[in-house]
Amino acid sequence: MNGTAPEFSLPPGLPPMLAPLHRRVCALVERLPVQPPSFVLARALDRVLLPRLPADARQALAGRCVELRVTDFGLRVRLQLGPGGFALASTTAEPALRITAPGSSYLRLLRGDDDPDRLFFERALVMEG
Predict the structure, then answer these.
(1) Which of 126, 125, 58, 65 is closest to 95 using CA atoms?
(2) Which of 12, 16, 25, 65 sits CB 3.0–4.6 Å from 93 for a disulfide?
(3) What sign has the CA pseudo-torsion 65, 70, 76, 81?
(4) How far apart are CA 51 and CA 68, in angstroms?
(5) How would you write 21-43 as a 3-class SS string?
(6) Residue 68: burial class (beta carbons within 10 Å; 0-12, 13-18, 19+)
(7) Which residue in 95, 104, 86 sits closest to 127, CA to CA?
(8) pLDDT by residue (tens digit) across 32-67?
(9) What is the C-alpha separation between 107 and 113, in angstroms, rounded?
(10) Which of 24, 119, 38 is nearest to 79 (CA)?
(11) pLDDT recorded at residue 6
(12) For residue 7, what pLDDT is reported?
């Protein structure tokens, strides 16, 4: 990490007067352990993504830490792909890939409304690593 304070984007439709409360809630969520949401996402990805994941993508992800951040909720998950599917990644492992976006961008990806390239060029999705 770079040591700077996290920036939290406001969810669409949230009144600006709630911004201070939103920042406090996000700061609290960011301090919570990453294991519970990471476990839930790993199980979901095992069912939805893993059967469709090409062999070359599996090989590229194998054993590497991937971190996903949802900026408008302060949520962070850390995963790695192992022989048995997606699993929790160590909280100390340096992520090989970090994807940062607001929840609405992740939903656009899940629904198939947009692809990652478009979101990347719109700066709605940031990929590092």
Answers:
(1) 65
(2) 65
(3) negative
(4) 20
(5) HHHHHHHHHHHCCCHHHHHHHHH
(6) buried
(7) 95
(8) 888 999 999 999 999 999 999 999 999 999 999 999
(9) 8
(10) 38
(11) 53
(12) 62
As given in the structure block, the two tokens for residue 47 are 């069912």
Sign of CA dihedral 41, 47, 52, 55: positive
pLDDT in tens, 70-99: 988 889 999 999 999 999 998 888 999 999
One-character DSSP codes across 61-104: HBT-EEEEEETTTTEEEEEEEETTEEEEPPTTSPPSEEEEE-HH
Residues 23 and 40: their CA atoms lie apart, in Å, by 24
Mean pLDDT of 110-119: 87
Q: Which residues contact 71 (CB under 8 A, 6 or more apart)?
A: 7, 8, 9, 100, 101, 102
Question: Phi/psi of residue 126, each to 5°?
Answer: -115, 125
